[in-house]
Structure to design on (768 residues):
């Protein structure tokens, strides 16, 4: 405060001095306790609101409340006050006894205070860098003036330290919405100067590129910096770029709307070295982040829409200019923030949105799953957590078959889930809440899967065997900024986990656990494990723990999938591979059933016995039954249909409700399309009517191939039989697909196994 007033022609003292004068200041603090606004306590008007962007509903209410306080003369009771003493030094630029207000500015190397009095604003440089910016702004305003498309303030530079500008807010209004007048203004600013050059000739870009390479600040999310550097390195130096004059900080809080003209101030960052469209992108992005607090996806939608008002870029041009806006703006501000001692909350908002904005262009380098992993760890950068059993490579190099286990508090877990729901890379997300963790499954836009286990308690059968907070406290950051559980805690966890679950520690982890658990600790852990096992036997809160166990077990339902087709279509191979993919990548347990629930045995068991009947089934060829009797066929159908009717509820309760995925190798569709395979000869309408009363499997796949292809795999059916059955199944699935919206009936020509697996997995992960 004292330094500020020295620049304006006054010297302040905390105590009375000879020939000094007394004055009272009122003030409002920032959330960190530092001064934000202060003013002459005798002022009758809240002039400090001149620095306040009262464009949102909440901000307008605050401004109205402040004005009411001043109208009622209660300001000296509401706001804090301080008595100081001053002396006049030199030629003051304003009358300290008059009405005035001061804004201390944003901390950092560019810090400038802002004084308002007698219808003028005075920018007061607090650093040498800020002084250079004021001189630059004075020159920029002269260059930007004389336009019929916008207006600029009248300006006077005092002593190279203070820039006086007219108050442009009189009879004007702020507008948060980028409209036609804003578009006209941006076009007018752009027309002041334009040129085209290659990237290699763009000196400003080359300078920033070098500066970013030397940037080192642990507060900056590491993956944001890695993405930025990767994109900068990938830029083609021979590429052409359109540059133009730009305001540099064209935002709602730097302009006022007067009828059909925009008055623009704060020209200190203006230059002729910014990419075309810079001001257009800056207005929408800064407003979207700092005022509206919107997601990047929403901000990008507005950019696409408002592009029609301004430059009419085609899609390639729009993304080309947006890319260079982001590269330039992020590079500039990361350098500024690295020199700033204290960070305000808005910086973290900007960083989170910027890293997501870069994803669109970083897809040339990383997959969407890799980018999402990078975003996750950047979003956790300032939050206490510990990743369990996480590799020491770059975080995004996580195996497709691996998930991420993170220890964190419930509050931080919910915050991460909110972040992921807003992330533009996540097409769909499923969250399953258990008593001790959140299980999160994310499907990216390119149909890749990422699983997160956000662990709130480390427990076994309701008993906590390690303290999450202690593990988080002992966590260490690796070279990529990922906070992982320390080696001793990880080894301890592995020993507890496998021993409590009655299995040996895998060979992969055995050497690690032996190295990081001493003999004394091992004895204590063994005693604790024995105690835990005894506690489960004499559990007092049995009912409560049973309820929690049931709730956790049934927290996410499974579903049923069926695979139909003639013998030789490749069902067994596909089912085996899909089962593996579902367990490893979809993270769901699988149960494989053949044909039906099998609550009842096959009919021949009653006559031949179990072993002989099953041996005959395995050794016989399909469709060889000779039964043609309607009565016996109906009796046989009723027997198997009873198995489906009753068995479906057993399967649902035993597997589906407990989160398992049930795979049927063949299903009831055989009775509708190929009843002869079950030695049944009945009108199709009977079997089709029976399907109405069955629970509909969520996914039904009919695998087929040409008769030649099938015969090359398995010579069990004739060419004619294969052609006939393919046609029957195809007709059936087409019919069922038209009448059942809740279930999927998909026919797949199974010529290439990988293509088939991709279609099936995409069908699963894209289902709502």
């Amino acid at each position: 405060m004292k330094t500020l007033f020295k620049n304006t022609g006054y010297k302040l003292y905390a105590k009375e001095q000879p020939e000094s004068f007394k004055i009272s200041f009122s003030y409002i603090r920032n959330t960190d306790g530092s001064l934000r606004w202060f003013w002459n306590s005798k002022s009758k008007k809240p002039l400090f609101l001149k620095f306040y962007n009262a464009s949102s509903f909440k901000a307008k209410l605050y401004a109205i409340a402040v004005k009411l306080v001043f109208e009622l003369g209660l300001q000296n009771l509401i706001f804090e006050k301080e008595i100081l003493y001053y002396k006049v030094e030199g030629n003051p630029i304003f009358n300290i006894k008059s009405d005035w207000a001061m804004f201390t500015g944003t901390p950092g190397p560019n810090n400038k205070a802002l004084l308002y009095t007698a219808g003028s604003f005075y920018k007061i440089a607090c650093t040498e860098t800020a002084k250079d910016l004021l001189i630059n702004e004075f020159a920029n305003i002269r260059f930007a003036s004389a336009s019929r498309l916008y207006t600029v303030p009248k300006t006077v530079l005092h002593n190279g330290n203070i820039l006086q500008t007219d108050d442009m807010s009189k009879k004007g209004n702020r507008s948060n919405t980028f409209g036609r007048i804003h578009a006209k203004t941006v076009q007018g600013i752009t027309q002041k100067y334009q040129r085209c050059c290659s990237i290699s000739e763009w000196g400003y870009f080359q300078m920033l590129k070098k500066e970013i390479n030397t940037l080192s600040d642990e507060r900056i999310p590491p993956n944001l910096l890695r993405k930025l550097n990767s994109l900068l390195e990938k830029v083609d130096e021979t590429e052409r770029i359109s540059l133009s004059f730009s305001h540099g900080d064209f935002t709602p809080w730097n302009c006022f709307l007067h009828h059909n003209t925009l008055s623009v101030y704060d020209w200190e960052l203006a230059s002729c070295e910014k990419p075309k469209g810079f001001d257009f992108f800056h207005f929408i992005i800064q407003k979207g982040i700092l005022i509206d607090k919107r997601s990047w996806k929403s901000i990008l939608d507005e950019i696409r829409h408002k592009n029609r008002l301004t430059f009419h870029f085609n899609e390639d041009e729009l993304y080309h200019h947006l890319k260079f806006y982001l590269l330039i703006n992020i590079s500039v501000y990361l350098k500024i923030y690295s020199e700033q001692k204290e960070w305000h909350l808005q910086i973290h908002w900007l960083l989170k949105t910027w890293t997501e904005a870069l994803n669109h262009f970083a897809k040339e380098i990383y997959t969407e799953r890799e980018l999402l992993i990078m975003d996750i760890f950047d979003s956790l950068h300032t939050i206490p957590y510990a990743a369990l059993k996480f590799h020491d490579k770059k975080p995004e190099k996580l195996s497709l078959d691996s998930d991420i286990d993170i220890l964190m508090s419930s509050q931080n877990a919910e915050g991460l889930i909110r972040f992921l729901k807003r992330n533009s890379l996540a097409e769909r997300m499923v969250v399953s809440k258990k008593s001790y963790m959140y299980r999160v499954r994310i499907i990216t836009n390119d149909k890749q899967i990422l699983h997160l286990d956000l662990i709130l308690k480390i427990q076994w059968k309701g008993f906590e065997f390690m303290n999450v907070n202690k593990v988080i406290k002992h966590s260490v950051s690796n070279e990529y900024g990922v906070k992982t559980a320390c080696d001793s805690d990880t080894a301890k966890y592995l020993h507890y986990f496998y021993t409590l679950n009655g299995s040996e520690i895998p060979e992969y982890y055995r050497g690690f656990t032996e190295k990081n658990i001493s003999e004394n600790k091992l004895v204590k852990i063994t005693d604790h494990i024995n105690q835990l096992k005894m506690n489960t036997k004499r559990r007092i809160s049995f009912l409560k723990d049973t309820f929690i166990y049931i709730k956790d077990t049934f927290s996410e339902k499974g579903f049923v999938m069926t695979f139909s087709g003639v013998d030789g279509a490749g069902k067994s191979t596909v089912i085996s591979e899909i089962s593996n993919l579902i367990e490893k990548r979809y993270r769901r347990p699988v149960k494989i059933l053949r044909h039906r629930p099998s609550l009842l045995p096959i009919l021949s068991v009653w006559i031949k016995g179990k072993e002989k009947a099953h041996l005959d089934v395995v050794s016989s060829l399909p469709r060889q039954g000779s039964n043609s009797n309607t009565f016996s066929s109906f009796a046989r159908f009723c027997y198997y249909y009873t198995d489906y009717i009753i068995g479906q509820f057993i399967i649902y309760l035993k597997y589906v409700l407990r989160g398992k995925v049930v795979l049927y190798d063949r299903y009831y569709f055989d009775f509708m399309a190929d009843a002869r395979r079950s030695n049944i000869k009945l009108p199709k309408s009977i079997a089709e009517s029976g399907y109405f009363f069955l629970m509909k499997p969520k996914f039904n796949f009919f695998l087929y191939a040409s008769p030649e292809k099938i015969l090359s795999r398995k010579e069990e059916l004739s060419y004619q039989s294969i052609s006939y059955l393919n046609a029957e199944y195809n007709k059936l699935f087409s019919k069922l697909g038209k009448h059942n919206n809740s279930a999927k009936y998909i026919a797949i020509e199974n010529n290439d196994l990988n293509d088939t697996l991709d279609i099936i997995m995409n069908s699963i992960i894209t289902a709502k």
Q: What stands out?
A: The chain has 28 helices and 29 strands. The mean pLDDT is 88. Residues 630-656 form the longest helix (27 residues).
